[in-house]
């Protein structure tokens, strides 16, 4: 299929924990197909296997059983591994631990330098990437003096400069303050809507999932829920039992409905609830 | 009152081109039995302020008085101050260092020079307070616990000092909703145990649920200070300072502005639900 | 307290000195240091002083800033001075108790202290005007001929870059862990040496654990960004020699040559 970005086929991932003989299963027989251009959010609490799943998507981990395909390239194919990582870029939780260089633009250049891109083109890519994340004016700055949100945008630019088709973000906002979180969420939306990148956003913040095309909820290495934000959040009870939040207005709507009021189940925003009442 | 701040100023890198006023004439009283929420966006001076409360930072000018003693005077005993005012930093699990949970929690009480029996009692009590099972966890390495557990070990390490005031800087940062609820639930218990708490947080929802008084910092100054409900009435003023209000409070304001006669100063989903049920039933009957 | 260290700090600018190729700058500094050791009398120091002042003026780095780099090394300079004053024999100037101070001693002490001061200001001028990244680039390129004999030039440069990147982060972290342990009654300031060393455990253990965690995460992030060693790597800013680089190195060679010749002819 041409339109498929990532295909995960019957994937199981096991690892052995220190001091224990038994194999622990982090991912259990998961099947996912992600379309090009899709904005997918993977929700789950810590230890649900969502970060492991992310690392399987660009060959940082290889499945114990089953196959992962990125743009029809199998991540087990050693000849394709760099191709795969160019196609599916990955942003991590702690911005401090993914910035390599002491100057912003040098760091953004790190990926293309590794790809062997000619210097002039690197320059173009770096400028373009910094423009997209709105950090051009900081290109000569030292990263350690930036705010958390700014650092994370630099990290995103570093991935963008590699020209990936797909960007996997593994809890990119977990360590940021509210301002930083908003910056990153806006950047992610822009990458999807304007730059047409396939987005896989892994998070445990439910409010970041509202704008996704599709949500997957993970629990103990399995996908336990799948659907549009509306479909997921309307199941308030189930979501809460999985250790996740729903927006406060969604919860209120759910509570009112339980009291016998005629309120729709799929309320996501303040405006919708005001209208419904 | 247990902590009194009098005209605190703090200047970073004084007399250099990088000079920056981090605290600007702060005066604040913290009373026994307070549960204070300290809010303000990053760089507003919150972290600098809390480090003044136990003498980790010294004010450029002004006085910090803890339990009647000026903590920066010569005869003040800083160890005693730090015992009375417990401070839990952000990501406290990054400071764990001992081989076992027990030893790590015992670090503080041992530094106070307490006897073995007393140390033992305190470690046990502290673990109870953060709901960590003493028998199963005391001999485990803190490094093999889950994220939420590690954090609770770190908090227990401060609780074992038996502080009168407990300050927590973003205690839920980086935790998932379950881990967050565990920590926040513990704070309520601690408060009921009679500990005065100062909670630094970015989450207005958490603040609204827990604290009874809010101090808002902005550019090194105290911009607002009042009871929780009063503070969240001032959505516009908070917005000017780059801060929000809980989504539920926001909703109730919006709904009221559409001509519905409701009380809009709710802080939690529970409160909103009760208020709306009353209102909708009244409206239905009329 | 830890943030006061200024050695190795870069002072951004756009001057002739800043724009010189780092390779050229490193070679110039090596020539400069070598020339210092070829000077045995005071007069050529005037040339050195002129060279330093001229370079500082060219680079537009505030004079104060350059002097600041000397501060942490004042003790070493002081010790060198005292040792030379006390241990050089010669014409006695005056005696204080068991200590004799000689004319030769005093002159030798001043001479050695000046040599150290010139050495430090010269090298700190290099780090002040060269960003750490281009400095490591320069070192990598200069060392690359030795790759054939198995010297991992690229890896060394990469390690330096990462070290430079993480120094501020780790300093900040040290500060924070110290404070957190002090909040639990830890004492880093009193006691004898053994106790003090013991008291460092609550600081060092978390610091190392966190550093390892960071290293681990960084390695994964670098791998995700297609890092696979130095081969086939291109650079954003490729080093290219320009006219002014040639000009600077010729000028320096004349200066260097003059000092060497002077050493054996006693010209000045």
Describe, in short, the structure shown.
The complex is a heterotrimer of chains A (277), B (286) and C (268). Helices cover 42% and strands 21% of the residues of chain B.
Describe the fold and architecture.
The complex is a heterotrimer of chains A (277), B (286) and C (268). By secondary structure, chain A is α/β, with parallel strands linked by helices. Chain A is 35% helix and 24% strand. Chain A has one domain (4-228): 3-Layer(aba) Sandwich (Rossmann fold). In chain A, the strands form 2 sheets. In chain A, strands 6-7-8-3-9-10 form a 6-stranded mixed sheet, with helices on both faces. Chain B is of the alpha/beta class. Chain B folds into 2 domains: 3-234, Rossmann fold, CATH 3.40.50.300; 246-286, no CATH class. Chain B has 12 helices and 10 strands. Chain B is globular. Chain B starts with a strand and ends with a helix. In chain C, a hairpin with a 2-residue loop joins β1 and β2 (99-102). Chain C has helices at 16-19, 22-37, 43-59, 63-68, 74-87, 103-129, 132-143, 153-183, 193-199, 201-224, 243-265, and strands spanning 92-96, 99-102. Classes of the chains: A alpha/beta (277), B alpha/beta (286), C mainly alpha (268). At the A-C interface, α2, α3 and α4 of A face α8 and α10 of C.
List the helices and strands and how they pair.
The complex is a heterotrimer of chains A (277), B (286) and C (268).
Chain A: E1 4-16, E2 23-35, E3 39-43, H1 50-56, E4 65-70, E5 73-74, H2 81-87, E6 88-91, H3 104-115, H4 119-132, H5 148-160, E7 166-170, H6 178-193, E8 198-203, E9 214-219, E10 222-227, H7 229-233, H8 236-241, H9 248-258, H10 270-276
Parallel strand pairs in A: 3-8, 3-9, 6-7, 7-8
Antiparallel strand pairs in A: 1-2, 1-4, 4-5, 9-10
Helix pairs in contact in A: 3-4, 3-5, 4-5, 5-6
Chain B: E1 3-12, E2 20-30, E3 35-39, H1 46-52, E4 61-66, E5 69-70, H2 78-84, E6 85-88, H3 101-111, H4 116-129, H5 134-137, H6 147-159, E7 165-169, H7 177-192, E8 196-200, H8 204-210, E9 213-218, E10 221-227, H9 228-233, H10 235-240, H11 247-257, H12 269-285
Parallel strand pairs in B: 3-8, 3-9, 6-7, 7-8
Antiparallel strand pairs in B: 1-2, 1-4, 4-5, 9-10
Helix pairs in contact in B: 3-4, 3-6, 4-6, 6-7
Chain C: H1 16-19, H2 22-37, H3 43-59, H4 63-68, H5 74-87, E1 92-96, E2 99-102, H6 103-129, H7 132-143, H8 153-183, H9 193-199, H10 201-224, H11 243-265
Helix pairs in contact in C: 2-6, 2-7, 2-11, 3-6, 5-6, 7-8, 8-10
């Amino acid at each position: 299929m041409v339109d498929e970005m990532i295909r995960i086929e019957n994937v199981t991932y096991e690892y052995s924990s220190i001091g224990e003989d038994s194999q622990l299963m982090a991912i259990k027989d998961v099947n996912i197909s992600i379309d090009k251009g899709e904005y997918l959010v993977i929700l789950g609490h810590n230890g649900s296997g969502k970060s492991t799943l992310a690392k399987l998507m660009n060959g940082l981990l290889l499945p114990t059983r089953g196959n992962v395909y990125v743009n029809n390239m199998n991540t087990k194919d050693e000849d394709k591994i760099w191709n795969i990582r160019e196609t599916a870029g990955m942003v991590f939780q702690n911005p401090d631990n993914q910035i390599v260089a002491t100057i912003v633009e040098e760091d953004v250049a790190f990926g293309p330098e590794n790809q062997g891109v000619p210097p002039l083109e690197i320059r173009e890519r770096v400028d373009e990437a910094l423009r997209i994340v709105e950090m051009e004016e900081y290109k000569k700055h030292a990263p350690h003096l930036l705010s958390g949100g700014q650092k994370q945008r630099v990290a995103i630019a570093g991935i963008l400069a590699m020209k990936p088709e797909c960007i996997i973000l593994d809890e990119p906002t977990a360590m940021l303050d509210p301002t930083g979180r908003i910056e990153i969420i806006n950047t992610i939306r822009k990458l999807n809507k304007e730059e047409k990148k396939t987005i896989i956003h892994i998070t445990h913040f439910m409010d970041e999932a509202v704008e996704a095309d599709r949500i997957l909820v993970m629990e103990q290495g399995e996908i336990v829920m799948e659907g549009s934000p509306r479909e997921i959040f309307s199941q308030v009870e189930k979501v809460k039992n999985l250790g996740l939040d729903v927006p406060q207005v969604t919860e209120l709507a759910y509570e009112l409905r339980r009291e016998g009021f005629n309120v729709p189940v799929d309320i996501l925003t303040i405006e919708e609830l005001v209208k419904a009442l | 009152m247990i902590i009194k701040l009098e005209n605190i100023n703090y200047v970073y890198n004084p007399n250099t081109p990088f000079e920056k006023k981090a605290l600007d004439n702060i005066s604040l009283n913290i009373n026994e039995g307070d549960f204070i929420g300290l809010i303000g966006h990053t760089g507003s001076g919150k972290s600098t302020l809390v480090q003044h409360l136990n003498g980790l930072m010294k004010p450029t000018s002004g006085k910090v008085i803890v339990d009647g003693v000026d903590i920066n005077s010569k005869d003040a005993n800083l160890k005693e101050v730090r015992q009375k005012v417990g401070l839990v930093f952000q990501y406290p699990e990054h400071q764990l260092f001992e081989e076992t949970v027990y030893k790590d929690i015992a670090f503080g009480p041992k530094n106070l020079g307490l006897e073995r029996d007393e140390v033992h009692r305190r470690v046990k009590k502290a673990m109870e307070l953060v709901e960590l099972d003493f028998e199963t966890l005391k001999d485990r390495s803190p490094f093999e616990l889950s994220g939420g557990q590690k954090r609770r070990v770190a908090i227990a390490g401060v609780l074992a000092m038996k502080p009168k005031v407990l300050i927590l800087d973003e205690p839920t940062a980086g935790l998932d909703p379950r881990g967050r609820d565990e920590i926040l639930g513990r704070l309520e218990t601690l408060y009921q145990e009679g500990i005065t708490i100062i909670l630094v947080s970015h989450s207005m929802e958490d603040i609204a649920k827990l604290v009874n008084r809010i101090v808002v910092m902005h550019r090194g100054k105290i911009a607002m200070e009042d009871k929780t409900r009063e503070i969240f009435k001032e959505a516009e003023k908070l917005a000017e300072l780059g801060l929000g209000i809980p989504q539920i409070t926001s909703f109730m304001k919006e709904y009221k502005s559409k001509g519905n006669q409701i009380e809009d100063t709710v802080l939690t989903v529970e409160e909103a639900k009760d208020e709306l049920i009353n209102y909708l039933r009244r409206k239905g009957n009329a | 307290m830890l943030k006061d260290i200024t050695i190795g700090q870069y002072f951004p600018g756009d001057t002739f000195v800043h724009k010189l190729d780092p390779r050229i700058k490193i070679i110039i500094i090596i020539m400069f240091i070598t020339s210092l050791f070829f000077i045995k009398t005071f007069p050529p120091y005037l040339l050195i002083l002129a060279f330093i002042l001229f370079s500082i003026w060219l680079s537009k780095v505030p004079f104060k800033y350059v002097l600041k780099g000397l501060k942490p090394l004042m003790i070493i300079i002081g010790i060198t001075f005292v040792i030379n004053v006390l241990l050089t024999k010669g014409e006695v100037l005056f005696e204080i108790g068991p200590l004799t101070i000689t004319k030769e001693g005093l002159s030798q002490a001043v001479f050695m202290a000046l040599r150290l001061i010139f050495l430090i200001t010269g090298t700190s001028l290099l780090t002040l005007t060269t960003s750490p990244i281009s400095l490591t680039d320069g070192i990598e390129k200069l060392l690359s001929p030795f790759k054939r004999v198995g010297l991992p030039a690229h890896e060394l440069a990469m390690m330096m870059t990462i070290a430079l990147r993480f120094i501020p982060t780790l300093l900040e972290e040290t500060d924070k862990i110290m404070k957190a342990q002090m909040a639990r009654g830890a004492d880093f300031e009193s006691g004898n040496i053994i106790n003090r060393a013991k008291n460092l455990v609550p600081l060092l253990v978390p610091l190392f654990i966190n550093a390892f965690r960071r290293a681990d995460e960084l390695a994964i992030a670098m791998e995700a960004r297609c890092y696979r060693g130095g081969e086939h790597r291109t650079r954003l800013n490729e080093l290219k020699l320009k006219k002014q680089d040639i000009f600077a190195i010729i000028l320096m060679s004349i200066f260097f040559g003059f000092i060497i010749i002077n050493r054996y002819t006693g010209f000045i």
